[in-house]
Specification:
about 200 residues, 8 strands, alpha+beta
């Protein structure tokens, strides 16, 4: 089957479901976006998987499963979002044993599959049918905002801007220690913006 590769375009608060997030996947060639509604925990896990330099003091469920996979001599080869039924996406995670080359396919929620894929830097694919049924074509005016998964209000952003780099780093360490990953990611984005300005 001719699968279409997707990239993660961003995570934002869901406009349709309270307390949920929207994971935005994109087919690079056609720029068709695939919005997937996910929960808060999965949104955090995906964001932390993307932010390679933030390490929680204790492993999250997806981190634990990742260590188990590696210990069992498997690697995650790809994720395939193969179907959508009544607004629910169905996905498979494809594994391969590095010693025996045995292949293993596990059914998974799309949010979990993506959270695992980012930890292995594995590609995410879908079918043309899923893109046709659930894809949307929209222009993102401000890509940088889409890539800031847990940005809070403008007031909070202003508060962070008033702090020194040393204070931000201290806050970041404290947020990770307290397992407040929403705040940690916010602070991390502010630190990155400042470093880009310096460069």
């Amino acid at each position: 089957m001719d699968y279409k590769q997707l990239i993660i375009r961003g995570i934002s608060y869901s406009q349709t479901q309270s307390g949920a997030y929207a994971l935005l996947l994109e087919h690079e060639e056609t720029h068709i976006k695939l919005p997937v509604v996910i929960g808060n925990f999965e949104a955090q896990s995906i964001s932390l998987g993307l932010e390679k330099d933030i390490h929680p003091p204790r492993p999250l469920t997806h981190d634990l499963f990742t260590k188990f996979i590696v210990s069992a001599n498997y690697e995650l080869v790809s994720v395939i979002i193969y179907q959508i039924v009544d607004g629910v996406f169905f996905s498979n995670i494809n594994f391969k044993n590095k010693i025996t080359e045995e292949e293993l396919i596990l059914d998974a929620r799309t949010s979990d599959a993506v959270a695992m894929a980012v930890r292995f830097d594995a590609p995410i694919f879908t079918t043309q049918q899923v893109l046709s049924e659930a894809g949307i074509l929209l222009e993102l005016e401000d890509v940088s905002k889409e890539e800031q998964p847990f940005s809070e209000t403008v007031q909070n952003e202003d508060n962070l801007k008033s702090l020194s780099m040393e204070e931000l780093q201290k806050l970041l360490d404290e947020a990770v220690k307290e397992e407040d990953y929403d705040t940690a990611l916010e602070i991390q984005e502010e630190i990155k913006r400042r470093k880009k300005k310096i460069d």
